[in-house]
Amino acid sequence: MKRLLACSFARRLFKPRTQHSTHFQESKDSMEKSPIITANNNFDSQSSKENGKEIGSDAATNIVLNHEFSDGLNSWQPNCCDAFVVPASSGYHKGLTTEEGCCYAVVTNRKECWQGLEQDITSGVSAGLTYTVSACVGASGTFQGSVDVLATLKLVYQNSETNYLFIAKKSASKECWEILEGLFSLSTMPDQVIFYLEGPPAGADLLIKSVVITCPSSTACDSSGTSSVSTDDDNIIVNPQFDDGLNSWSGRGCKVVSHDSMADGKITPMSGKYFASATERTQTWNGIQQDITGRVKRKLAYEVTAVVRIYGNNVTNADLRGTLYVKAADNRERYIGIASVQATDKDWVKLQGKFLINDSPSQVVVFLEGPPPGTDILLNNCVIKHASKAPPPSPPVIEDAAFGVNIVTNTSLNDGTNGWFPLGNCTMSVQTGSPHIMPPMARDSLGAHEPLSGRYILVTNRTQNWMGPAQMITDKVKLYLTYQVSAWVKIGQASGPQSVNVALGVDGQWVNGGQIEISDDRWHEIGGSFRIEKQAAKVMVYIQGPAAGVDLMVAGLQIFPVDRRARFRHLKRQTAKIRKRDVMLKFSGSDSGSLHGTFIRVRQLQNSFPFGSAISRTNMDNEDFSAFFVKNFNWAVFGNELKWYWTEAQQGNFNYKDADELLDFCTKNNIQVRGHCIFWEVVGTVQAWVQSLNKNDLMTAVQNRLTGLLTRYKGKFEHYDVNNEMMHGSFYQDRLGKEIRVNMFKTARQLDPSPILFVNDYHVEDGSDTRSSPEKYIEHILDLQEHGAPVGGIGIQGHIDSPVGPIVCSALDKLGILGLPIWFTEVDVSSGNEYIRADDLEVMLREAYAHPAVEGIMLWGFWELFMSRPNAHLVNAEGDINEAGKRYLALKHEWLSHSHGHIDEQGQFSFSGFHGSYEVEVITVSKKITKKFVVDKDDGALLISIDL
């Protein structure tokens, strides 16, 4: 331990380990001021092999990001020294052999033994769990023999001294790689946990090939601060196959009957001997139910499987739903949709879904509902059990991606229409006179490109709107690749605007590859994207859309896979220009003359850019959800709790309790909040009592809604979405006239002058919807402003599939001309493959963060089972961070600036950093001084004077 202590005391920060205790007072004060930490330096890994060829266990997830340095130093930071990554083939250190294709980190210019390479692993560890560390390390330099390499944790507690926890030590030489192994456990959770490798004497280079930190002691070891409660696989449904008659089952507003057969023996059980029917149903919510109170546990994900069908009332098929009724301890009631299935009167079908309860309710009832009144619901059996953990996902294997290569045959039409065929009995011919330049969005992806041929396909004699040129591309499309679609299109003489669509027929299913509305005789760019994630037997691309009789012209159709990594490199450079600022720290004080050469370290505490998420009242009952949200987001929006149908579901009966509690939670945690939304223009979202009002009463109700909401929360919300989705709905405008939209904005401004008033809509950024194209959105905003509406912000929701950077950026560029702040307000991306989902999310976050007009990004949730779209979550139901969540955290980490060095002769230190809050440490021989400062947004350099 002598070397360890010498190293640690050199920091002047070492604090001895306390004795381990099996219990302690779980107060915030004791957790921060009396940390209990343990480490085992004699861990013997059975899964590691010599020379680092295999480290760690596949049974647990590695919480270290970029653990083999395949992405350079991303997620790693040198600790007061320099570092870089070299490939194995470089021969940089000839004494160490490494497999071809591998790389390793070199930590150099080390002036102290404690200097090394570090990574913040706070989000990956939890208190009370044991973690194994296995690192492949080496050393290089002028030393003789071997040197010690140490694995250490830095534990930062708010309002308390920093602690250092020794994990393990290994002697390393210049001749071979060594495996450093150890264990650690945290009895309390610090505010920050930083893992780093250190130890060799000053001047020696530390070499790191890989680092693995796993949690084999618990399969529920996760990154959100929770571990799953173990449970058996028992079905919590009593009498699931009706072997005991109708015991534990009852009717929900109807009668329930047990059967061994029905309909003169035509209906028999799919399995077992019996089934039950819910009959004499007079409401859609009537059905069969079972009370499962006490058998369902909070924060556990349950999977539901039921075998169902329908019978009677001449209904052959109907939507059948599984629903959960939950009554909270304070008597609040809510209904949770579990799953739905299209049931028939011909066969039994499976209804499958999942649910999770955040609180400890006083009553939980599961029931079936949905078919029209008079139709019986039949249930053969029902199973509800703890959802099994999905196996660890694997990234998709894509060979020979051929980024940027067009998969369309004869796109230049040099060979006439060879490769093309007419869809329907229309007529195709090749003409000349189309643009020679590549459409702008494709050019942004492809870069310099040969001019187009100027030839185009003319389609005439179109008797249906779906008729147009088509081509089979089945064998050319690869799974999981994101394809960009681009073409020039034009229409013949037509009466009124016409829609043109590049479509994909994937085994008979329509997939949107891009859509545009044309109302003149000019050539227009059409752009879009698609991705196929399941093997298809037939894939056809075709161009369709204008009304029958309208001629269609298509030129230069390009369909090519996009190279997202190349785009990301461009965005990183753009981000540095937009989101960073040059900073000069000017030091002064009584002993400022002796500061020259003094070592300083600058660390960014928080990026000031708004990264937010939707939350709901029930989420706050799950402390793991709340902890993850507060730690990783600085803005919030309420999913439903502020909407009119929630605050006044029945006329005159107001429910602001949920919104009040959410707002209080956000205020206590210094989270800023968007108000979503005052009104929602889509008719299907307007509650029945509002729809039933006559014009005068509706106008009164609208005014009462504005007055009640904005006076109650005056000054509490930073933004309001005034009338949501006006590009896709017109309920209030149809009933009250066009001026009502302007009046909503004007009245909101009068009642509460402080918030920015937003428009908010979807499919603005993806080229897939003619109703909300950037051009139409601009016209809509200008029209509102010209009539006096104080529109102050542009909301782009961001519910997107297979995003392509240049297409998103093109929309932002167009909207940016209005000079209003743009926010992505409801971002979610959906893919069953977590790695593809992570890539999609990275596209959206990088495009938004790199664009100067974007001033905030809100996710539409992040926790499984609490999002509007499936396969869009970042955190699994029981708290495990998936690949998309890890990518989000990695980007958040990338967008924090850290710097270190020495004060120059003028008493200054300069760096470039992201906007936000910072801490600077000045380390002298006798003391360490810490100061905080803020780098705000501005074009010029920032001079900050620091008095020591």
UniProtKB/TrEMBL annotation:
InterPro entries: CenC_carb-bd, Galactose-bd-like_sf, GH, GH10, GH10_dom. GO terms for molecular function: endo-1,4-beta-xylanase activity. Residues 589-891 form the GH10 domain. Transmembrane segments: none annotated. GO terms for biological process: xylan catabolic process. SMART domains: Glyco_10. It comes from the Eukaryota. Keywords: Carbohydrate metabolism, Hydrolase, Polysaccharide degradation, Repeat, Xylan degradation. It holds the Pfam family Glyco_hydro_10. Belongs to the glycosyl hydrolase 10 (cellulase F) family. This is Uncharacterized protein LOC104213280. It comes from Nicotiana sylvestris (Wood tobacco).
